[in-house]
TrEMBL record, chain A:
<comment type="similarity">
    <text>Belongs to the bacterial/plant glucose-1-phosphate adenylyltransferase family.</text>
</comment>
<feature type="domain" description="Glucose-1-phosphate adenylyltransferase/Bifunctional protein GlmU-like C-terminal hexapeptide">
    <location>
        <begin position="282"/>
        <end position="352"/>
    </location>
</feature>
<keyword id="KW-0320">Glycogen biosynthesis</keyword>
<dbReference type="InterPro" id="IPR005835">
    <property type="entry name" value="NTP_transferase_dom"/>
</dbReference>
<dbReference type="GO" id="GO:0005978">
    <property type="term" value="P:glycogen biosynthetic process"/>
</dbReference>
<dbReference type="InterPro" id="IPR011004">
    <property type="entry name" value="Trimer_LpxA-like_sf"/>
</dbReference>
<feature type="domain" description="Nucleotidyl transferase">
    <location>
        <begin position="17"/>
        <end position="230"/>
    </location>
</feature>
<keyword id="KW-0808">Transferase</keyword>
<dbReference type="InterPro" id="IPR056818">
    <property type="entry name" value="GlmU/GlgC-like_hexapep"/>
</dbReference>
From TrEMBL, chain B:
<comment type="pathway">
    <text>Glycan biosynthesis; glycogen biosynthesis.</text>
</comment>
<protein>
    <recommendedName>
        <fullName>Glucose-1-phosphate adenylyltransferase</fullName>
        <ecNumber>2.7.7.27</ecNumber>
    </recommendedName>
</protein>
<dbReference type="InterPro" id="IPR011831">
    <property type="entry name" value="ADP-Glc_PPase"/>
</dbReference>
<keyword id="KW-0808">Transferase</keyword>
<feature type="binding site">
    <location>
        <begin position="179"/>
        <end position="180"/>
    </location>
    <ligand>
        <name>alpha-D-glucose 1-phosphate</name>
    </ligand>
</feature>
<feature type="binding site">
    <location>
        <position position="99"/>
    </location>
    <ligand>
        <name>alpha-D-glucose 1-phosphate</name>
    </ligand>
</feature>
<dbReference type="InterPro" id="IPR029044">
    <property type="entry name" value="Nucleotide-diphossugar_trans"/>
</dbReference>
<dbReference type="GO" id="GO:0005524">
    <property type="term" value="F:ATP binding"/>
</dbReference>
<keyword id="KW-0547">Nucleotide-binding</keyword>
């Protein structure tokens, strides 16, 4: 049976999310009331019968390590294979590799020792509930060198300007990769190729002092490689800014999107916590909300997302906001269009309002 | 490997007074509090009391109980040298024998206890809701030098006839044990928690084993035999919330207790967490027209109707215009539109059809809806 190993490559990911990524990588930003963004990629990989996953961690990975641990909650705590978190730390004086090629070059052992012949490479910001089985089968059926996962979005205003667009010919073969704003087929950052080709391209890039595996190894060689695309039609999101982060969180308050992302396939796996059920008190008024466990709610919550362990006191009002773990909103406080990072306290009678669709972000552990 | 104290958790009871709730389910595995199972309280107490060697004795309908406990991971009892062991009945040279009483269950596992060469053995039952630091009980036991220390709870005088009552001297030495006395002379009830010196207990277990007329029960046989021999039996006074959820009524009451402000810490307590399995359901989704007062809700629930004083386990759906009061909805329950429930317990994955109206009056026992009786009950009221 042909199988894949996984690489989650964070080497080129940017820290788009202002205060939310001051102290953590984009991969470990909390999302949708329970998850971290990387949970979707990890879950989808595990669903695709991938039993070895490496994460190229670049920086600010304390929260990532804390979240993923030994990988048990994704069923990746295996005696053999399993999860490999690979931070950048190497001191080989003969090493001439640059950019993300350093990650491939210095972790060749992982790629060579793996039990799978194929490698699925992904970033962390593609949010979907799927498996990559069909992508893999398509790759094998087409006898492609490389197959890219693509999708399309209706709301082009929430798309990153720099997101890569894919042109294909009638056979599905990729003819051009560009940042053309007028094109609609978006590359999700997920692709699959044979291990031997990966190693060959990596050596080639390093030999020519290149610093970006995808751009220099794949995009630059489109003419000689047989690159295919496979199109994903389900619900998905790409996070690239505070606005898109806020927008895609809020979208999940809608029943249809919630069902598509969470209930259409297998559950999205995340770190297991030990929180009691959320406690709604007599004075609680909650409408249109997505709420994690362990919250105590005595105030008013409208059109908002609450992560686990949030306390909303009597006469406090929360509207159009995202409130992360263990925040406390004291009596009489009013907040609207706001993102509170973890452990923020909003003291009595404080009023905080962000602009619509441009939420005001409060950094972790602030007291306001 | 030598361990000071081995904990033996009795979890084999059928809990017959819980009716439908324990149909094919061991009482300790009955869901509780919107997320937990009853046995989680005793297991979490073990972890919080640093009692890391735990044998769980199972017998009646153990499938879900065994799946729930597994290797003890949620309670950090999956350990290299001690940890949690499930002790189910087994066959011996003279055939297979079920556990025929609480004491017999320990007698049959003397080898298990001996393998840790302990000074003390703590006997617990897996069907009570409470927080207790067993380490303090152990310290007290060592201090008095008793042969056995029995944890007792002050109960209202009018309830004494429902309990095993310990008659004690001023310094809490037990001189008499009365099982469900009509006319009690004391109101200290046994909680079924015993801390024995293992050497003493082992002697009495071996003696009891040979008695053909014994029911092999701690309360009925072992404790009376020790009293008769003038052993030193000491009472340890427990203060705090303790609930025996032995009947459907008391099970329901214990849930309503969770809305009492003084008892909120029973589930949400950073100092004394109750641990359990957690599954991977998304956060709960509350709709535009939902109205929720005094309720506990777990992950994966989707609420469009109204809730008052109700406890919802994971993955419950309550649809538009349904009104749920003082009810307990187990995992996967689906309440269709325009349903009215009051004082009702709905078991796992039961679908309540649109328009159903079921109310248990305050003087009646709460209604338990299961796959077996839902059809009959909805025809009746619909």
């Amino acid at each position: 049976m042909k199988t894949m190993m996984g690489i989650i490559n964070l080497a080129h990911e940017k820290d788009f999310l202002k205060e939310l990524t001051y102290f953590r990588s984009g991969a470990s930003v909390p999302f949708a009331g329970r998850y971290r963004i990387i949970d979707f990629t990890l879950s989808n990989m595990v669903r695709s019968n991938i039993q070895e996953v490496a994460i190229f961690a670049r920086s600010k990975y304390r929260s990532l390590l804390d979240h993923i641990g030994g990988g048990a909650d994704w069923d990746l705590d295996r005696r053999y294979s399993g999860l490999f978190i690979l931070p950048p730390d190497w001191h080989d004086p003969s090493d001439i590799s640059k950019g993300d090629l350093r990650y491939f070059h210095n972790n060749l052992d992982y790629i060579m020792r793996g039990k799978s012949d194929y490698v699925l490479i992904s970033g962390s910001q593609f949010i979907a509930n799927t498996s990559y089985d069909k992508l893999f089968q398509h790759h094998l059926d087409q006898e492609a060198d490389i197959t890219l996962l693509t999708t399309t979005y209706e709301e082009s205003n929430y798309l990153p300007e720099y997101s890569m667009k894919v042109d294909t010919d009638e056979n599905g073969e990729v003819t051009c990769l560009s940042h053309d704003l007028n094109k609609s087929k978006v590359f999700t950052g997920v692709y699959v190729l044979h291990r031997d080709l990966l190693l060959e391209l990596v050596q080639d890039c390093i030999a020519h002092y290149k610093d970006n595996f995808f751009m220099d190894g794949i995009q630059a060689n489109l003419d000689r490689l047989n690159v295919h695309s496979y199109h994903y039609h389900g619900y998905s999101a790409l996070i690239h800014s505070i606005e898109s982060y806020y927008h895609h969180n809020m979208k999940l308050l809608n029943k249809n999107y919630y069902n598509e992302l969470f209930l259409s396939g297998n559950p999205i796996l995340t770190k297991i916590a030990n929180q009691p059920p959320t406690n709604y008190q007599d004075t609680a008024r909650v409408n249109k909300a997505s709420i994690g466990t362990g919250c105590e709610i005595a105030g008013e919550v409208t059109n908002s997302i609450l992560f686990p362990g949030v306390k909303v006191n009597k006469h406090a009002e929360i509207k159009n906001s995202i409130i992360m773990q263990r925040c406390k909103i004291e009596a009489g406080a009013q907040i609207e269009n706001v993102i509170l990072d973890k452990d923020v306290v909003i003291t009595e009678n404080t009023v905080l309002r962000g602009a619509e669709e441009q939420p005001y972000v409060i950094a972790k552990r602030s007291t306001i | 490997m030598k361990t000071e104290c081995v904990t033996m958790l009795l979890a084999g009871g059928a809990g017959t007074r819980l009716g439908e709730l324990t149909n094919n389910l061991a009482k300790p595995a009955v869901p509780f509090g919107g997320r937990y199972r009853i046995i989680d309280f005793a297991l979490s107490n073990c972890l919080n009391s640093r009692m890391y060697t735990v044998g769980v004795l199972t017998q009646y309908a153990p499938l879900e109980l065994h799946q729930h406990i597994g290797v003890g991971k949620p309670w950090d009892l999956d350990r290299m040298h001690n940890g949690l062991s499930i002790l189910a009945p087994f066959t011996e040279d003279d055939g297979a024998h079920l556990y025929s009483g609480t004491a017999d269950a320990i007698t049959k596992n003397i080898n298990f206890v001996d393998s840790y060469d302990p000074e003390y053995v703590l006997i617990l039952s897996g069907d009570h809701i409470y927080h207790m630091n067993y380490r303090e009980l152990l310290e007290e036991h060592k201090k008095t030098g008793a042969d056995v220390t029995i944890s007792v709870l002050e109960v209202p005088w009018e309830d004494t006839s429902r309990f095993g009552i310990m008659n004690t001297t001023d310094n809490l030495r037990i001189y008499q044990f009365e099982e469900k006395p009509k006319q009690a002379s004391n109101n200290l009830a046994s909680m079924g928690i015993y801390l024995f010196n293992w050497k003493v207990l082992k002697k009495y277990l071996e003696h009891d084993k040979a008695q053909s007329d014994s029911s092999h029960d701690f309360g009925k046989d072992i404790i009376p035999a020790m009293l008769a021999d003038h052993c030193y039996l000491s009472a340890y006074r427990f203060e705090g919330y303790w609930k025996d959820v032995g009947t459907v009524q008391s099970y329901w009451e214990a849930h309503m207790d969770l809305f009492d402000h003084d008892l909120e810490k029973l589930l949400n307590n950073k100092e004394w967490s109750i641990y359990s399995h957690d599954s991977q359901y998304p956060p709960q989704r509350i709709d535009d027209d939902a109205i929720i007062h005094q309720s506990l809700i777990d992950n994966g629930c989707q609420i469009s109707g109204s809730l008052d004083q109700s406890v919802l386990f994971e993955n419950v759906v309550v649809k538009e215009r349904s009104d749920i009061r003082q009810s307990i909805l187990f995992p996967g329950v689906n309440i269709e539109e325009d349903v009215f429930l009051e004082r009702v317990i709905v078991q796992e994955n039961v679908v309540i059809p649109a328009g159903t109206n079921i109310v248990a009056k305050p003087e009646e026992e709460p209604v338990v809806l299961s796959q077996n009786n839902i059809q009959a009950l909805t025809n009746q009221t619909g």
